[in-house]
Amino acid sequence: AAAEAWARGAAALPKPWKPEKPVLPQEGMRNVLITSALPYVNNVPHLGNIIGCVLSADTFARYCRLRNWNTLYVCGTDEYGTATETKAVEEGLTPQEICDKYNAIHADIYRWFDISFDHFGRTTTPHQTAIAQDIFQRLLARGFLLSDTVEQLQCERCQRFLADRFVEGTCPFCSYEEARGDQCDKCGKLINAVELKNPQCKLCRGVPVVKPTQHLFLDLPKLEERLEPWLEQSWATGDWTANARYITRSWIRDGLKPRCITRDLKWGTPVPLDGFRDKVFYVWFDAPIGYLSITANYTDQWERWWKNPQQ
């Protein structure tokens, strides 16, 4: 087929598909939605960031367009969470100023590399708040959330509970003296911040105390019975990588655990529930919704891409 197409020449090739703006799914066409991992906003992207996710997705998007497939490629900066707050303290700016500064830097660099996004957005938008809170309310109404008490470090001098990255101390496993409250950079083990020896508040260098605080959890064990047959069908009909299958099977094999979805922070999507309005959503819950909200900032018909199994 390649030899015959070559012999016929370029004039015989099908005309390139030029979708209208915004790009929306088309009946009778192959519709392809492409995202690449949302780059975190608190740094200047380097070649590793670009090669790791953005460039491979861009290459695939260009291939899809050459095949005359109706293709939408979206991405954007991931802007909530502790790392933004930490960077803001370092630079003497507000978290919003940090996000504005580095979102512009990211966008400029990707333009320079000619990455072919149809839309490059960000997660600190009204659409992000509306969609994340709507998903939360639906989970709440269906009984998929629970609350529980968590032991957490509090800095009495700063008058705040300390998120994982605002705590440093000695690793309980390898005794590395500059371990963070979520992971040790020396031995690589995950850490619960209250397990650190000689913990210190990263902001004021005070010694925090352990105090109880209420948090909301996604009740994943309730979903397990429905999830297993769905996975079996997806593995049989989809194009899952061997690695994705292996990791997912290990989660199911070990049994799903409730997962905390709130944090005692100021910078994030607010939790719309009495008793938790001083908290925000944990970035693990909030950031993946960024793919939806970025598409919603691109087109008000975003659900045609995200809620459209027929196409």
UniProtKB/TrEMBL annotation:
Enzyme class: ligase
Assigned keywords, A-Z: Aminoacyl-tRNA synthetase, ATP-binding, Cytoplasm, Ligase, Nucleotide-binding, Protein biosynthesis
Signal peptide segment: none
Catalysed reaction, written as an equation: tRNA(Met) + L-methionine + ATP = L-methionyl-tRNA(Met) + AMP + diphosphate
Pfam families found in the cross-reference section: tRNA-synt_1g
Primary location recorded for the protein, binned into one broad class: cytoplasm
Gene Ontology MF terms in the entry: ATP binding; methionine-tRNA ligase activity
The protein, known as: Methionine--tRNA ligase, cytoplasmic
Species for this entry: Jacana jacana
Encoding gene (name): Mars
